[in-house]
Known about the structure:
The complex is a heterodimer.
Chain A: E1 7-16, E2 21-31, E3 36-40, H1 47-54, E4 62-67, E5 70-71, H2 77-83, E6 84-87, H3 99-103, H4 105-109, H5 114-127, H6 132-135, H7 145-157, E7 163-167, H8 175-191, E8 195-200, H9 203-209, E9 212-217, E10 220-225, H10 227-231, H11 236-255
Parallel strand pairs in A: 3-8, 3-9, 6-7, 7-8
Antiparallel strand pairs in A: 1-2, 1-4, 4-5, 9-10
Helix pairs in contact in A: 5-7, 7-8
Chain B: H1 7-44, H2 49-64, H3 67-89, H4 98-122, H5 126-134, H6 139-169, H7 182-190, H8 194-223, H9 227-250, E1 256-259, H10 264-279, E2 284-287, H11 292-300, E3 306-310, H12 311-318, H13 327-340, E4 344-352, E5 355-360, H14 361-367, H15 372-375, E6 383-386, H16 394-403, E7 409-412, H17 415-423, E8 429-433, H18 438-441, E9 444-446, E10 458-463, H19 471-477, H20 486-496, H21 505-518
Parallel strand pairs in B: 1-2, 6-7, 6-8
Antiparallel strand pairs in B: 3-10, 4-10, 5-8, 5-9
Amino acid sequence: MPTAPLIAYANVAKTFDGGRVVAVDDVSLEVAEGEFLAVVGGSGSGKTTLLRLANRLIEADRGSITVEGEDVRRADPIGLRRRIGYVFQSGGLFPHMSVAGNIGVTPKLLGWSSEKILARVDELLDLVRLDRAHYRDRLPHELSGGQRQRIGVARALAAKPRIVLMDEPFGALDPLTRDALGDDYRSLHRKLGLTTVMITHDMTEAILLADRVAVMRGGKLLAQGTPAELSASGDDYVGELLRTPRRQAERLGALLPRDGAA
Amino acid sequence: MNLLSDPRWNEALAHLPDYLGNHVRVSVAALALGLAVSLPLAIASRNQPVLRVALLGLASIVQTVPGLALLALFYPLLLALAALSLAWFGFGFSAFGFLPAVLALALYSMLPVLRNTITGLQGVDAAILEAAQGVGMTPRQSLFSVELPLALPVMMAGIRTSAVWVIGTATLSTPIGQTSLGNYIFAGLQTQNWVFVLFGCLSAAVLALAVDQLLALIEDGIRDRSRLRTAFGGIGIAALVAATLVPTMARSSSSYIVGAKTFTEQYVLSALIAERLRAGGLLATSREGLGSNVIFDALASGDIDVYVDYSGTLWANQFHHTDIKPREELLGDLKSTLAKHNITLLGELGFENAYALVMPRRRAAQLGIRTIADLTSRAATLSIAGDYEFFSRPEWAGLQKAYGLAFRTQRQMQPDFMYAAVASGEVDVIAGYTSDGLIAKYDLVVLDDTKHAIPPYDAIVLLAPKRASDQVLREALQPLLGKIDISAMREANLRAAGGDGASSPDAVARWLWEKIGKQ
């Protein structure tokens, strides 16, 4: 018997501007414990709104959302956000706080002791593979984009959440950094037993990192499943999205020698 | 004479603890009050566009009111409030000096703080606000640990602007009875004592720069989270306030306060009265540069104890009489009217300082003008200048009515510049003062008022209600009554306008006392 989903959307809808803009249109979606789900869609597809409904940065108009078995409408939104990790697009670090201050922000809100926070900050810097002594007291503007996003991931993990929500976390990074960071996060996800929902517009990234992929367009959920299951979907848009990685893989296969030095 | 060896520098320096101390206190109090009101308002309005627009609009309107007018408006407003409070709650408060100055300056300080706080808070990146919410901050936590720290540089720039404005504008609080560095400037302008004017401007500028730099230090300290620098800045400001409080505190608060209006003669007479009180063993301080409309109310409510006014001024302006009576009769009536207000008319000094139409002697002879009536036919081709209040005074209306005067142009001027202006032909006629020494200096002639349109202006000493039966005060002032004739006063006024080391009101008052004493 499958375990209860850790996050479940049931017939969720959300409109903006007094109903003129439909962001999320009757979406039902479940994320199992330990699963890595990627939500793929273009801009205006409603994918970011869907993510923010989970920790009540946005309130749903209709339908229900449960997190860890609890209806979010009955949860205290502040407490909910503190126990769910959230990685923002291009970091969202507080520019006036040091790296340690940024990473320790949620533990501090939760009232941890300062020794415990300091120890946790060092532990997380190790985890995201940044030198403790070198980075702890830096300010965000002194860091590269990749380093900032590593701090963003460390901040999301600081209060030991079971769930991590990621809003296009690697979108603004150069391809090499993006690849390295994606792989590193994937292994953290597995090692820490996290449940992750990642928003991306890049199907290749979604296929490479996630266990399952959900495709959204115009607020509707078009398809969801493993890459193999998606391939079997008859939807034109899903097929179009899958064509790009497939063609890239074929061309790369043809262009790069199999046993190259790279 | 060498500029730096001028004895007036030392005299100016002697006033510094008092003037600077009062200036710092009124500025700091106004700034603190302004911040206490505008910071919470700005924060409350950050998510309320309507409130925000209303606040900024209101603050901008306040800003367009000239500083002097704003300060002057607060005086009658508070006077009315004090009367209401006395009627309703059984206690009044002084509407004079500190309170109206603090309130007006606080209002004046609000715009930069409001605007910069609102701009600073709005300038915080939406993504950062979202992150604050996303990591689980309450709106309050987001405000204090993210929004305010990020808005701080812009907010501090506003606070610093406002501090400099308040310190500068506080010099204008002298006419409503608040001692400030403006006392140098107002006294200096009236008595042509440029050393005082310069000294007042310089000390206000130095004070403004010092406060600005201390605030900058605090700003740097907060930004770089350097407790040391924040503490240094804070200690600096606290030290400034404390240092200026000490000399003022040490002074007795039970001293007699002698009021003076804003012209040379008044500075000299208040210095003379203060000196006589001290000679009689009393403590006395002068409160100079008070507006004509402020000084009588200040006496009536006991904020000042004694000053010199002029019978015609009170008759026409204060008690709104339009009829003109002979000298003795008017004085008698005035005495009984004042008694109804519990104000004592102690006596006349012995001279009149009346408004008079004045022309250069030679020009008058050329045109064949000897009396005001002679002006009537020629007025349409002539220009007239008067002080800031003359043309709105009932005397002017009376003159126009009695003689049918209609000049080509009428101009308002600083009184001490009028005489030079008429002597040089800049204007044809001025409304001067009969006791002014400059009439003789520039060889001017006073035109006869044959129809007695201008009331008599005997200089009279008035005592506050609480000093009505103060025998020591009366005895100290007795030797002055009836002793100052028009020629003595003219010469004193001329000396006070001399612009040299011997022209300070104190020096002239000493000269005048010696002259009276010899009679």
